[in-house]
Amino acid sequence: MREIEAKYQVRSGDGEALSAALKRAGVELGSPVHQDDQAYAPEAWAYGLSKVGVPFARLRTTQDGRHLFTVKTPVSNEMECSEAESIVADRQQMHEALVHMGFRPTVRIVKTRCSGTVGEWSVCVDEVESAGLFIEVEATVTDDRDGLAVQAELDAWVRALEVPVERTTDTYDSLVRAARA
Predict the structure, then answer these.
(1) The domain spanning residue 8 has which CATH number?
(2) Where would I find the CYTH domain in this sequence (predicted)?
(3) Using CA atoms, how far apart are residues 6 and 79, in angstroms rounded to an integer?
């Protein structure tokens, strides 16, 4: 499975305009969900190096106490990743296992997410502590579609919302790290 996404920072004060535009586009966002993510990178990788082809891990705890373990490997860019995900029973034990496998914790990402769908795409509006408000539009594919072509489709849809946004190709861990620097 590949996750292909386009991500945008929403200008301060434009959250209501975004909500109205999503509603006009037929996107019904669900209730806010709190997510506490710890990002992990291989010991040999450092910020500033390419992420393409490198596996990265994440441990997420949601407000209902569920723990999700995810591994993403960027394919052609950071917004196109092969992905595997599973629920884990014990976050601390999974953390220890990751460290034993040669991963190191990098950045903690805490956010509030509202999710919806448009067609086969998922839409997430995220308020990320230290980084701001973002919209992500994501396609999950199991075929060999060109990731850049899918990202262009996602971009066209977001631009059609006519809300002032700035596209970013950085992942949340990089955005939070830069905001805290």
Answers:
(1) 2.40.320.10
(2) 1-178
(3) 7
In this structure, what are the phi and psi dihedrals at residue 134, rounded to the nearest 5 degrees?
-135, 155
Evaluated on CA atoms 111, 114, 119, 120, the torsion sign reads positive
- Residue range of the domain that includes 171: 2-180
Q: Three-state secondary structure along 112-166? A: EEEEEEECCEEEEEEEECCCEEEEEEEEEECCCCCHHHHHHHHHHHHHHCCCCEE
Instruction: Report how many domains make up the chain.
Output: 1
Q: Report the alpha-carbon distance of residue 120 to residue 99 in Å, rounded.
A: 36
**Residue 41 — pLDDT band, cuts 50, 70, 90?**
very high
